[in-house]
Amino acid sequence: MAVASSHAYIPAAAERTRHHTALRLLPFLFALYLANYLDRTSVAYAAIGMTRELGFSDRVFGLGAGVFFISYVALQIPGALLVERWSARRMISLTMIAWGSMTAVTALVHTPAELYIARFLLGAAEAGFFPGVIVYLSHWFVCEDRAKVTSNFMSAIPLSFVIASPIAGLILGRSWLGIAGWRWLFVLEGLPAVLLGIIAYFYLTDLPGQAKWLAPDQRQWIENKLQQERSAGVETMPIRQALASCTIRLLATVCFLNYFAYYSFLFWLPTMFKRLSGFSDLNIGLLGALPYAGLFVAMLVNGWHSDQQCERRWHCAIPSFIAAAGLLGLAAHPLSIPVVLTLFTLTTVGNAYLPALWAMPTEYLCKSAAAASVGMINAVGSIAGFAGPYLFGYMNTKFGSFSYGLTVLAITSLAAGLLVLRIPQKTLASAI
Which one-letter DSSP state was computed for residue 187? Predict the structure, then answer.
């Protein structure tokens, strides 16, 4: 059936098209992001084993975790633009194969310098993946589905920790063939990315018009609907102007402040819990999964509710305030393990802001400007991925307590929540 306009398409048929597209793309993209975050899990838990075997200090590990983001930041915008102007399928595939290989190579580390080099190269390999997928989703899903779709994709973050934390705790306490468990951890968590990268090349489709798995009328409806949205409610501007806009700079600052707390806490949670509780590696892995189970639910609910209410700002701000409360509670040195675990969960649930935040740029800018803006926002935010873990490790080494670092993280989370509320409520594009 020929379709001249999305208005002529029967609502039930449109709903079936949206459902079919989501069912085809989201489970696979979810699996890709799950593999992506296995690296974050591996390095967070491997720190316990590296400290035991190699004698790395908190400062060394903090720098090792953070140096990843130097190369990661530098290649964010080029990676997003390659997805927009070249091929999402090829870019995502190559990125996954490269980062899976570099994760496995990290198992060969023996000195701090080798750790820094491995993490730097891994950052370069991963750089284009996240902004690329955010841009890719905007090629397939209409605005009213954008936050919900992003939450489904990004819920792989907490689920990766729910799955991988107990496995990491189990592997850490063992060795095979005379090789320490933390080394096996890097190898085993790098292999899925390589395999999925190969599959991605054959499975993904760059644009709706190329999707043989959609009927012709379905392909035309998606293309028409997305074009109408871009024409009706999107600010068209050159890439350079978009990157210099007030709104994009504001979103980048919010991203930086949130990521400062997010990555610091992510990388240091297993180590903090180990020192506060004295539990075995296996129990740290099992209990360390609980906060991320809470985040998994919170992220899905927040993304769904953001789309239902057609609202983004408060769905970013409230989780940031929750994280700040959890961090301040931890800074007060609670003695009860259940209280500590509850505060860990509150802080982790604070990351449920992610779907609403990343729904914003692609809704209000034209395609190339949105791609560059997503890359820039994530690049600026990812600078905090270097600064946060390193500063947190440095402060712990200097003061002998996590409290000072936790207080700094609480302040950045609070500031992020307040700042995102400065974005105008109705039309972000008008603020640019």
Answer: H
Q: Which residue has the tokens 């841009």?
A: 135
State pTM to two decimals.
Answer: 0.68
Residue 293 in tokens: 């189970």
Among the listed residues 233, 251, 255, the one whose alpha carbon sits nearest the alpha carbon of residue 242: 251
CA end-to-end span of the chain? 40
Dist CA 65 CA 295 (whole Å): 22
Q: What is the pLDDT along the chain (432 residues), one digit of tens a residue?
A: 444 444 455 677 777 888 888 888 888 988 888 887 777 777 778 888 888 888 887 788 778 877 888 888 777 777 777 777 788 888 889 889 998 898 888 889 889 999 899 989 988 888 878 777 877 888 888 777 766 787 777 777 788 878 877 888 788 777 788 888 889 888 888 888 899 999 999 999 888 888 888 888 888 888 888 777 666 554 555 555 555 677 788 888 999 999 999 888 888 888 888 888 878 877 888 888 888 888 888 988 888 888 888 788 899 999 999 999 999 999 888 878 899 899 999 999 988 988 888 877 766 555 556 666 777 787 788 788 788 888 888 888 888 888 898 999 999 999 999 999 988 764 434 433
DSSP string for residues in 166-186: HHHHHHHT-EETTEEHHHHHH
Q: Could you tell me the two tokens for 142?
A: 């209409």
